């Protein structure tokens, strides 16, 4: 890796590499001198994607060790001599390391932000919530300003009593690859899909129960549920399993559905919603997902509660929409997603 000189425009800390952040950083690196420091590898957090090498920015990984799901420094932090802006990251596994690094980062940075990824989350245990609150507050004191990715993160910050400035960095995903097959156009909404893990927090069991009830109530109307991201046993007649999907398989999954459903008990955002919307699919999300702020603007009835009955009501509403009503919502989604592009996210970083 090429060696940096004595200054960068932007220094960003991240827990680990992700394709969506990589796309932002590549765009940002076209106009700003950017260094990204990772504290873990993607595989440390169970991620299955390949880590791409940067072209327009520089990246390095600081040596760390993990104990009890917390990350601690295990080597020297090699910082540039100066940074116009430093962006610390507020992430539970790496917050101890971030607190230890923050004083050195502040010495070389003209301005320091904390990129807050937390949301109000009553599902966390008391001990974890206390740890999160204490470390978030300590990092906010060291940074003085925050970068947030959603209205839910804004509420988390205000709930901590943070009165400093908050700048929004939109949550974005890269567009489909140029060689991706063209997906069929959506006209009516009969094919629903879930993409993600099977952990209880994702509330997939409630979605499947809801879909069973909707299909049973009106078999003639139809209705399918496509499940991807994990192995699904005991499929119903109206269900189809796709397993883990990526690349061509990911595009095939979105080609098979009309509506992406994310019924999570709690979810800081849900980038799969962005992936659906940029591909001309609509989305149903629970009101406890950060991405509900997008979906609510498309159709408030597509934002639901957590029970099978509440999810079922959103499914039934989608099934009832006419061709014209579907087209109107798809047009709203296209317009909204112009504010959730890689270019918009890179510009938000540049404006820090």
Describe the structure.
- The chain is of the alpha/beta class and 352 residues long.
- The chain contains eleven helices and 15 strands.
- The protein has helices at 19-28, 95-108, 126-143, 151-159, 204-217, 248-256, 271-278, 292-298, 308-320, 323-337, 342-350; strands at 7-14, 34-38, 58-61, 64-67, 70-73, 82-90, 109-116, 145-148, 166-168, 191-195, 224-228, 239-243, 259-262, 282-286, 303-304.
- The strands form three sheets. A seven-stranded parallel beta sheet has the order 3-2-1-6-7-8-9, with helices on both faces. A six-stranded parallel beta sheet has the order 12-11-10-13-14-15, with helices on both faces. The protein has a two-stranded antiparallel ribbon with strand order 4-5.
- Strand 7, helix 3 and strand 8 (145-148) form a beta-alpha-beta unit.
- The protein starts with 6 loop residues before the first strand and ends with a helix.
- The relative contact order is 0.12.
- The model has no long low-confidence stretch (mean pLDDT 94).
């Amino acid at each position: 890796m090429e060696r940096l000189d004595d200054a960068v425009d932007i220094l960003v800390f991240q827990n680990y590499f992700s394709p969506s952040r990589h796309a932002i950083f590549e765009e940002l690196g076209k106009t700003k001198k950017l260094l990204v420091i990772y504290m873990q590898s993607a595989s440390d957090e169970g991620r299955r994607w390949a880590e791409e090498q940067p072209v327009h920015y520089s990246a390095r990984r600081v040596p760390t060790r993990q104990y009890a799901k917390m990350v601690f420094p295990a080597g020297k932090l090699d910082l540039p001599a100066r940074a116009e802006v430093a962006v610390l990251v507020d992430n539970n596994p790496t917050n101890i390391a971030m607190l230890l690094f923050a004083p050195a980062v502040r010495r070389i940075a003209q301005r320091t932000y904390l990129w807050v990824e937390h949301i109000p989350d009553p599902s966390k245990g008391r001990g974890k919530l206390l740890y999160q609150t204490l470390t978030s507050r300590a990092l906010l004191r060291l940074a003085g300003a925050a970068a947030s990715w959603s209205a839910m993160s804004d509420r988390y910050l205000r709930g901590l009593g943070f009165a400093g400035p908050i700048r929004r960095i939109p949550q974005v995903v890269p567009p489909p690859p140029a060689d991706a097959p063209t997906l069929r156009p959506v006209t009516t909404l009969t094919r629903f899909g879930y993409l993600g893990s099977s952990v209880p927090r994702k509330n997939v069991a409630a979605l499947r129960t809801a879909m069973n009830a909707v299909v049973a109530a009106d078999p003639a109307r139809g209705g399918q549920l496509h499940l991807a991201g994990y192995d699904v046993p005991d499929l119903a007649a109206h269900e189809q399993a796709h397993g883990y999907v990526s690349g061509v398989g990911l595009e095939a999954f979105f080609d098979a559905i009309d509506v992406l459903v994310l019924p999570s008990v709690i979810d800081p955002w849900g980038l799969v919603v962005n992936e659906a919307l940029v591909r001309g699919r609509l989305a149903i999300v629970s009101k406890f997902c950060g991405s509900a702020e997008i979906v609510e603007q498309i159709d408030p009835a597509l934002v639901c509660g957590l029970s099978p009955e509440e999810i079922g009501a959103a499914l039934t509403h989608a099934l009832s929409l006419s061709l014209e009503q579907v087209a109107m919502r798809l047009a709203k989604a296209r317009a909204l997603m112009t504010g959730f592009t890689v270019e918009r996210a890179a510009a938000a970083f540049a404006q820090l």
